[in-house]
UniProtKB/TrEMBL annotation:
SUPFAM superfamilies: Actin-like ATPase domain (SSF53067), S-adenosyl-L-methionine-dependent methyltransferases (SSF53335). This is N-acetyl-D-glucosamine kinase. Its EC number is 2.7.1.59. PANTHER family: BADF TYPE ATPASE DOMAIN-CONTAINING PROTEIN, N-ACETYL-D-GLUCOSAMINE KINASE. It comes from the Eukaryota. GO terms for molecular function: N-acetylglucosamine kinase activity. Belongs to the eukaryotic-type N-acetylglucosamine kinase family.
Amino acid sequence: MSEQNHWKHTWPSARVLGQFIVSNRHLFEGKRVLELGSGATGVCGLTAGKVGAKSVTLTDHPALEQAFSILQKNIAQNGLQNVCTIQGLDWNEPNFESLQKVDLIIASDVFYDPEVFQPLISTIDALLTRYPEALLYFAYQDRDDWFIGGDLLERSLSASLVRSIQAESYTIQIGTIYRLDMAQGKVFAGIEGGATSSKLVFLNEKAESLGVFEGAGTNLYLNGLEQTANDIANWVRKAKSEIGIKGPLESLGMGLSGAEDPRLNDRLVEYLMDNHGDVTKAAHLVSDSVTCIGASFKNGGVVVIAGTGSSCRMLTEDGEERQVGGWGHMIGDQGSGHWIANRALRHLFNVDDGVEKSVGSVETLRTVVLEYFQIEDKVQVLDFLYAKFVKSEVAKLTTKLAENASDPVIAGIFYEGGWELGKHVAAISRHMSEAMRQDMPIVMVGNVFKSWPLLKKGFIDAVRQLSPHPIQSIHLHHLTETNAFGAAALASKRIDHDLPFNHQPHLFETIHL
């Protein structure tokens, strides 16, 4: 190996691995990194130093004095003298006595010649034996049909493909190698993804938490498909490294805000698996509303969401998803906080215009509206509905209305809101099995349900009168488990592994119809 001239070149794999390091800089910040086969440039090792590695040891064959001389100049040129050191390393006789600690190993295009595979794999084995918590990231260019899986397995090592990069005339693969006996059994994960914040949970086979992490928003429509997938993969990688998970997860479930289109969901999963194969063996993506059901009921059920917007979802016993509503305030959102507020405003305007009758005086309603928007005349509210429209701010009027629900007009508006939410359940019940209609489990989510006593009669009347098939009982619950657990549970079912249900949602009322 010392007589070869590969060290004189910067190969395409180095650029690809360098880009991966930059994209996943959080994996390298504060870590002790060792690079195999640095050559004269040490591109990947220097990149690790630039993104914040605590120390970087650049290695190659001890006889490559010219390469080391150039490499030392590159270190100085990049201002990394306090971070990077050079050490000779003969793969035929590896010696790591001077190394105190290694967290990550990187290697670019070291699998270039089958003749070096055995000493190289032996060196990797020795490194991961000495530093069993370390993880190796490597990139290589496809040149011949070769396979090292058997050699790795003999040494209790395993490899995972991160992604393949196809150029005009060649293909480059990025992968990881880790010690199998450092894997923590089967690990599952789930993500509860909102527009502004997200939660990630890791679970073992007993559904016991291995770690919970908070992150940024993961809205598919706001961030785009590829960016969302990349952000998720980078976040999961970082979290895995913090709790010592080396290999890919058994499954990753995602319940993301905006993930309403099954075709788009499938495309994100496909992209994630093609470009981040080291993260998980399987992935499943649904909307965050569906994961509410997965977090609450083991064998399917219904969720009714009434916050700023509204929707209803059902998960059948065999995992089939059904939807009613959830189309936004321009089309529906009936029974939501915004809908109730808007209905109150429309009622006030319509009564004053003489196009709608009221069950009583609208003066209490008028007072609540004027005080909430801090205006003197109802016409001034138009500014808040058009020029200064913020849906969530309009929806907050519902809270003030609830505080004055002793007024018969306002009480009637809440009855209508309950009726609209009941219509959702009646409509979705046509897809239910007879068994689910006998005892229908529903989890209710959203601030509007804080006013459940005001909604209840309208809700029951709509379910009773509008359901196409008789419904015997409905059991109403509050969510007690994070949606991230629901996402993990639904994804594990897709690979025929049922995570144990160690919790029960809070049953707050049973209604016999």
